[in-house]
Specification:
By secondary structure, this protein is an alpha/beta fold. The protein is built from 12 helices and 11 strands. The relative contact order is 0.16.
């Protein structure tokens, strides 16, 4: 029998392939600005590293401990090697944390809106979702989340910067929040977009892990590193919890191809710095453009912008007809657009301006 908690779930709907959409819409060109992918691609060193490896030992299982990548991340983030748990993208890590820590009847506190997979996996485990709306400026309401915690609360999810609003709460704000959260409650800070933050140099809260055993920090190679197709994510957790997660994690969940790609991408920090600067520059132009049109938007610290416009669905269809796919369905009349390269941004902005005016 199917679990009662699963029967009425709404699944996460992944993006169709670009080829599928082009065929459906009769398009010769399609720029996908809907999935927050890195429009500047991947470090050239990734392709070279894979070519150098070829298919050596392709008949062998990969290193289940992901030792090489683990060591590189330990050196980069200055964390305990036993604190790292790798997953087939953060999707697997979100599922793993939910499966391991949540039981039927637990309460899970979420920002609203935020990434839908947090709620999906909590509901699969039979949890009750407690949504705390963002404030009027689109920021995560940390005080509201504290107020929502009850003796039944097992987990709190903080997507920081938040998807889809793009807003970022400071390192100090998260630290203060952690001092007020009961130690029995696990706080998961998803830092998928943390590399794009420019308002604060010390953005990540990885350095708070020694102070708070109930803190979990998530990172991914899908965004700034441009490795969405390789599916590499990881959690940084207290070593005691890491041992438990390792017993639940599927073995061999990362291929050698993925590990090689992630190592090469992680080593090329010059490429990352260039991407962050280009995204920040284009993001600033986007926010200025939306302000000039008097369209409500939030102060993004990510590689996307989130804004409200009348007849949003019609605008998205008009953009699609012109070869640009953007994200809908995240709120009434709200649209999310990945920050792209200058020419694409200008083309999309021209369509928006003509639609609004």
């Amino acid at each position: 029998m199917v679990k009662r908690a699963i029967k009425n779930l709404k699944p996460y709907i992944p993006e169709k392939t670009i080829a599928e959409i082009k065929q459906e819409q009769g398009l010769t060109k399609l720029v996908r600005l809907s999935a927050n992918e890195n429009e500047w691609g991947t470090s050239p060193k990734v392709a070279q590293a894979i070519l150098d490896w070829g298919v050596t030992d392709a008949n062998r299982y990969p290193d289940s401990e992901v030792t090489s990548l683990r060591n590189n991340i330990v050196a980069g983030l200055k964390v305990d090697p036993e604190a790292l748990v790798f997953g087939n993208g953060l999707d697997e890590i979100i599922q793993l944390l939910s499966r391991t820590l949540i039981t039927t009847g637990d309460e899970v506190v979420l920002t609203q809106p935020t990434f839908s997979e947090y709620a999906l996996h909590a509901e699969i485990e039979g949890a009750k979702i407690v949504n705390v709306p963002v404030d009027s400026s689109g920021y995560t309401d940390l005080d509201g989340m504290l107020a929502a915690i009850t003796p039944a609360t097992d987990m709190v999810w903080l997507c920081n910067p938040n998807n889809p609003t793009g807003t970022y709460v400071t390192h100090q704000a998260v630290e203060t929040f952690m001092t007020k959260v009961p130690k029995s409650v696990t706080v998961v800070v998803d830092e998928a977009y943390i590399d794009f933050v420019t308002v604060e140099k010390r953005a990540s809260v990885v350095d708070l892990l020694p102070k708070f055993d109930n803190l979990v920090v998530l990172r991914t190679f899908s965004k700034v590193y441009g490795l969405a197709n390789f599916r590499v994510g990881f959690a940084v957790v207290a070593p005691k919890l890491a041992k438990i997660l390792q017993t639940v994690r599927l073995p061999y969940n990362l291929s050698t191809f993925a590990e090689i790609a992630a190592n090469a991408a992680y080593a090329d920090q010059q490429f990352i710095q260039r991407v962050v600067k280009q995204v920040a520059d284009e993001r600033g132009r986007w926010l200025a453009f939306l302000k000039a049109l008097n369209l409500k938007s939030y102060s993004s610290q990510t590689n996307f912008v989130f804004f409200k416009v009348d007849r949003a669905e019609q605008l998205s269809q008009e953009l699609l007809r012109q070869g640009y796919l953007i994200r809908t369905g995240l709120g009434p009349d709200w649209l999310r657009i990945t920050v792209g390269k200058s020419a694409d941004n200008q083309a999309v902005q021209k369509v928006i301006r003509n639609f609004v005016e």
